[in-house]
Every structure is written in structure tokens, then in C-alpha cells.
Amino acid sequence: MGEIKLIEVKEGILSENDAIAQQLREKLKNDCTFVINLMSSPGAGKTSLLLRTIPRLKDKFKIGVIEADIDSMVDAEKIRETGVGVIQLRTGGFCHLDATMVKSGLEAIGSSNFDLIFIENVGNLVCPAEFDTGATRNVMLLSVPEGDDKPLKYPLMFTVSDVLIISKVDYLGSSDFDLSLLKERVFKLKPGIKIFEVSSKTGEGIDQWVSWLEEEVSILKSTSVKELNVTAMMAVREMVGWSQKKLNFSGNTLAQLIREITTIDGQSLYSVLIDEEGTVKKDYMVWLNNRPVKEQHSLEIPLQNGDRVLLTSMIKFSAGG
Ligand SMILES: Nc1nc2c(ncn2[C@@H]2O[C@H](COP(=O)(O)OP(=O)(O)O)[C@@H](O)[C@H]2O)c(=O)[nH]1
Ligand SMILES: [Mg+2]
User: Residues 54-91: pLDDT tens digits?
Assistant: First the structure.
């Protein structure tokens, strides 16, 4: 493995931050990339949570991590050991990330290639709350040792967060942290905020958090509209009556796309191209981004914006001359 990419980022113009964040969010939605902005005090357990979370999801989603917590590579090195893509942002002493810095980070990692990107924001409960980064969801961690009074001291952080992870719950028994009082305080600031109680040490609560993530990413993938380039050749072209189309597709998988395409006589192309087992019939070929799709599960691959699909019958060479 080579060096971890280190990106110097500079602060953007404050008055433009919200507009840039909004543009970023739109782009991420179109690309079907779900971005989590992870915020907390230093040491609340962001990196530990990622180290617990990534192995659970990395076979299902293409995951990337943008590290900004501190300018050292310590966290980035740990994340890299999980085998996912990671880059380190150097914020030059800034106590937060803004949308311009996140944009640079997303460009550097190549965000459109990822399903799920975690940004480990700078450890701080004040500044990061003041900047919309363009992330899909804001997730904050509050660790038990920090105390249940934090909503009173740092209300904005709770207000801007979609999810609160109460971390280090393995300390609950040995502290005076009042879980129900904390929740009461938090719900006053942000009714409806999603709360998880997690210990990265014992693994408690990780299942619930991982399931939530999985569901959110899947929803994004299934609902966003993707522009696809679909080419029909040979016998398939004759059946559908066109050779090339840009299609706005709001479904999810290649199988769904083929189901939605109809022939001139109103039949779904699926029954023509795909057999009962869900594999491409031997007289036809389906290509995704210049690669032939063969196995059954390949038809269940979620499509991405800009994907190229080719549907064709096999070229038959006649012997002799
Ligand atoms: N007991 C306990 N310690 C934890 C837990 N999560 C993290 N830690 C420890 O807290 C320290 C800071 O964690 P880290 O993940 O680096 O926090 P970050 O600065 O927010 O990324 C490390 O020593 C971790 O081992 C937890 O759930 N329980
Ligand atoms: Mg960290």
C-alpha cells in the first residue's frame, strides 16, 4: 500500500458556505453517495466507532473515509487497515470543516465511486456545528464520560445533528450519567433525533447503528434518479425499436431496468433476455460499463448515475462461405 493521500484544504468564503453545501448535497444524491459527517469532542470515540462499523459494511457498500480530526495520520492509518479508501485532510489549524474543504476532500477521494463516505470532522463541539458541510446526515457522538449536561452547554451541536450516538455506554454503570435526563434534554433541542447507545469496546448497540446505516444507504440507492446510457443492438434493437437512449431510471438494479424496458409489442424485455433462474439467456448478452454480466447476482447490482448498459443478441457466425 502506498502513502495515504494528504490534502491541504483552505477555508471557503463564509457567505457562500450554505450554497456550496446545498450543491454538494445535490451532487451526492445524484451520485448515490451517502455521506456521514461525524462530529464530537476529541476522544469521544469517532475512530473507534468507524473501526467497528466498516468491517460490517465493507462487503456490501463501497466505503471511503475522509479524516480531518487532527493533522496527524494516526487515525487514517488505523482506518486504512480495514482495507477501505482513506484520505487525510490538513485543515491548517481550523477547528471545523466547511463545505469548501469537504468539496476538496470529496473530489480528492473521488466520491462518486463510493456508496458511503464517513467524514471524521475535527474534534470540537462548537465550530463544526456552525458549518453545513453538504453531508447527507450529521451524526454526533457524546461519550458517557463527558456528562449528561452537554446539551445545555452545546445546544447547537444537538440541533444540527440528525443522529446522536451515545458512546462508551460501557461506562454507564460506573458514572452518574443520567440517560433519561440526557434524552429529555436532547429531545427538547431536536425532537425526533435518532439516538443510538453504543460501546465500541463491548460492541453493544453496534448492530442497531449498522442496520440504520444500511437502510439509509439502501433507500438513497433505490430512490435517486440515475441517468443511464442504454444501447440496444442486433435483435434487441429490432425488438425495442431504438438503438440508443439516455434513460432517467429511478429503480435500483440492472434486473429492474431490464424489466422496465418494453419491446415494440409492449412486452417486458426481461422475459426475452433473462431465463427463469435469473441469468442472461445464451442467445443474448448484457454488458454493464463495457463488461459482460454473466452471473445471476450481477443483475442485482445497484446501478449508478452515468452507467452504460448494452443489450444485444449474440453475433452468430455461419460456418463455411
Ligand atoms: N471504554 C470505552 N472506550 C472507548 C470506546 N470508544 C472509544 N474508546 C476509547 O476512547 C479513546 C478515544 O477514542 P477515539 O476513537 O480515538 O476517539 P476520537 O478522537 O473521537 O476518534 C481511545 O482510547 C478508545 O480506545 C468505548 O465505547 N468504550
Ligand atoms: Mg479520531
Answer: 999 999 999 999 999 776 788 999 999 999 999 999 98
CA of 204 to the centre of ligand 1 (A): 14
Distance 75 CA to ligand 2 centre (A): 5
**Does 211 fall in a domain?**
yes
Provide DSSP, 212-271.
HHHHHHHHHHHHS-EEEEEEEEHHHHHHHT-SEEEEEE-S-BHHHHHHH-B-TTS-BHHH
CA-nearest residue, atom 13 of ligand 1? 45
- Do 253 and 109 lie in one domain? The reply is no
So what's the pLDDT on residue 181? 98
Q: Residue 152 sits in a domain of what CATH number?
A: 3.40.50.300
285-318 pLDDT, tens digit per residue, is 999 999 998 765 678 887 888 999 999 998 766 5
Residues with CB under 5 A from ligand 2 (ion): 46-47, 69, 75
Report if residue 230 sits inside a domain: yes
Total of domains in the chain? 2
302 lines ligand 1 (CB under 6 A): no
**Cell numbers placing 89:** 485532510
At 229, which CATH number? 3.10.20.30
Provide the grid cell at 305: 448515475
